[in-house]
Amino acid sequence: MRIMGLDYGTKTVGVAISDALCLTAQGIETIERKEENKLRRTCARIEELIREYGVEQIVLGFPKHMNNDVGERAEKSLEFQKMLERRTGLEVVMWDERLTTVAAEQVLMESGIRREDRKKYIDKIAAVFILQGYLDSLAVQKKQME
Question: In terms of DSSP H, where are the helices of the chain?
């Protein structure tokens, strides 16, 4: 089984995929679009990746505010969740993504990636953090059940 992690932004979607054992997340790509509401090509690419990697579940970043409120970005993510579930037939789990972009930015800075080049990678890295957080929670649940 493989799980896909998505960092849904206004003009990009970062994509990560788990290994077959669901232990680690790897960044795959960043899907770009010209306008926020133009999602047909984005969804088509996600569906291609689902088939290519044999994905059985999707984890979508849920961008809550630091005070736990659900704002406009989070509402758009919930709409995207419903669209993905309809189109793919897969369960789409919402995962708190607070500070993942900050963490991704920090990793890129520490890696020596120039500021102007970070935009190419940040969403993909954020998707890795979202998916890895979810995979780690599954591992903890599994241990607790043993």
Answer: 40-53, 72-88, 100-110, 115-118, 122-145
- Going by C-beta distance under 8 Å and a sequence separation of 6 or more, which residues neighbour residue 134? 3, 5, 59, 93, 95
pLDDT of 106 above 80: no
Paired strand residues for 57:
3
Residue extents of the structural domains in the chain: 2-145
* Architecture field, domain 2-145: 2-Layer Sandwich (3.30)
Look up the pTM and report it.
0.86
Higher pLDDT, 13 or 109: 13
Please tell me the distance from the alpha carbon of residue 34 to that of residue 12, in angstroms, as a whole number: 9
φ and ψ at residue 95, rounded to 5 degrees: -130, 125
Q: How far is CA 107 from CA 38, 50, 66, 78, 103, in A?
A: 30, 27, 21, 28, 6
Q: What is the spatial distance between Cα 86 and Cα 83, in angstroms, rounded to a whole number? A: 5
**Residues 86, 46 contacting (CB under 8 angstroms):** no
